[in-house]
Model the fold of this input.
Amino acid sequence: MSLRATARIAADADGSLPVLTSDGPLALRRTRAAVPGWTRVTVVGAMSAPLGGDRLAIETEVRDGARLRVDSAAATLALPGRSPEPAAYELRLRVGGDAVLRWLPEQLVSAHGSDLRVRTDVDLAPTARLVLREEQVLGRHGEPPGTLVSRLAVRRAGAPLLDQELAYGPGASGGWDGAAVLGGHRATGQLLVVDPAYEGAPPTARPLGESAALTPLAGPAVLVTAVAPDALALRRILDAALDELAPE
Amino acid sequence: MTASRSALLVLADGRFPAGGHAHSGGAEAAVKAGRIRDAAGLEAFCRGRLHTTGLTSAGLAAGAALGLDPYELDAAADARTPSPALRTAARRLGRQLIRAARAAWPGPELDALAAAFPRGAHQPVVLGVTARAAGLGPEDAAHCSAYETVGGPATAVVRLLGLDPYQATGVLARLAPEIDEVAARATAAARGGVGALPAASAPLLDITAEQHAAWPVRLFAS
Done:
C-alpha cells in the first residue's frame, strides 16, 4: 500500500512550536538546539521511506522573527515499492520577516530500482534568511542508482531567486552521467545561503577545488554546487562551505 | 502560423553574426579536465547539455517567441543560471544577437527589448523575440535554441581536440531526434506560461564555468 503523509511545523519568535505534527513515517521531534535562542526540530522517522507510490510532504512555516533549525536523524532512503508510480516528496518552506531557517537534513539516497520526485518550494520574505543544504547520493554503496528528479524553487519577495531541476538515473533523459552533468560522480549537492546582507557586498564567485564552485546568485544569495565520488567527500566540501558562509 | 522555413535557416546558420562561435558551451573546460577525449565523450557531453541547459534555454526561447513578458522571462533565466560567469556570457550573447537581429528583421519589439535591456537580456529570450520578428513560431525558436546548445560544443571540440569534423557532425546527426524531442517539450511547457518553464540544470557545467572564467588564458569566452 502506498501512503500519503504530510508533517507540519510552525515556529514562533518566542521559541515555541505552535504546530508540530508528525504523520505516517515522518516523525518530528523537538530537540535541543546547540545555540541559545534557536528552536530545533529533528525528522526522526523517514529512514525507510519513501517507497514507490508514496506521497510525503513536510510543510514548514518560520514565522516573523523566529529562528528554526530543521535536521534529520538519518539519511532518507528512496526504495522501490510495489506501486509502479514514482514516489513524491514535497517540501514547502515559508520564512517570514527577520526570520531564519537552517534546513540541514541528511543525505537523500536513491537506491537501485527506486523512482522519486522531490520538490522543494521555498518562499522567503524580503528580510528572511535561509541556509539550505541538499545532498543526493546515487545508489547505496556499489549499486547503480534509482531514478531521482529533484526541483528546488526559491522565491524571495515573490520573485524567483533560484530554480533548478536535477534528474539522474535510468528514468532520466540521456547524458546525465556525461561530462556536462555528473561526469561519473555519484554524489552531488548544494548549499544555498540567502541573506539580505549580501545585497551590498556579495561574495565573489570562485571554484572550490576541482569539483565545486561558490556562485553569487542574481539576488542576495550564494549557492555552492558540488559533485563528489561519494557522500563523505561531498559532505566535506559542503561542511567547509557552511563553516565559511554561515557558521551556527 | 505559416513560418518561413528560410528565415529559420538564416537564424540558425552558424554564419549568422551573433558571436556564438566564441563560446564552447563548457566544452573547453571539459576537454581540459579530460572529460571529453573523443567523439563518444563529446556525444555524452552534448546529450547531457541538451537535456539540461538545452531544454531550459529552449523553453525560454519558446516563451519569448509566444510573446510572454521578456522581464519575467529574463528573471526566470537569472534564477536558472546560478553561475555569474554564465549569466554574463548569456547577456553578452543576447546583446550581440539583438544587434544582428535588428539589422536582419527590424521592428518595434526588438527595439523595445534592446531599450529595456541595455546590458543585454539572456540570449534565449532575445532569440525568442528575434524569432517572432522573423515571422517564426515558438517551435522554431525552441529548435534553434536546442540546436545551438549542442552545435557550439561540437564545433569547439573540433578545434580543441582536433576531432575529425565528420565525427563531430555525426554526433549532431545522431542527436537530431532528441533535439526535436527537447524542442517539442520546451514548446509545450512554454504554452503553460513562465511558471511552467523547465528548469533542468547541470552541476558540472555550473562548476566548471567558474573554473574556466578564472583561467588566465583560454581559447573560448565560456
Q: What stands out?
A: Chain B has a mean pLDDT of 96. DSSP finds ten helices and no strands in chain B. Residues 39-65 of chain B form the longest helix (27 residues).
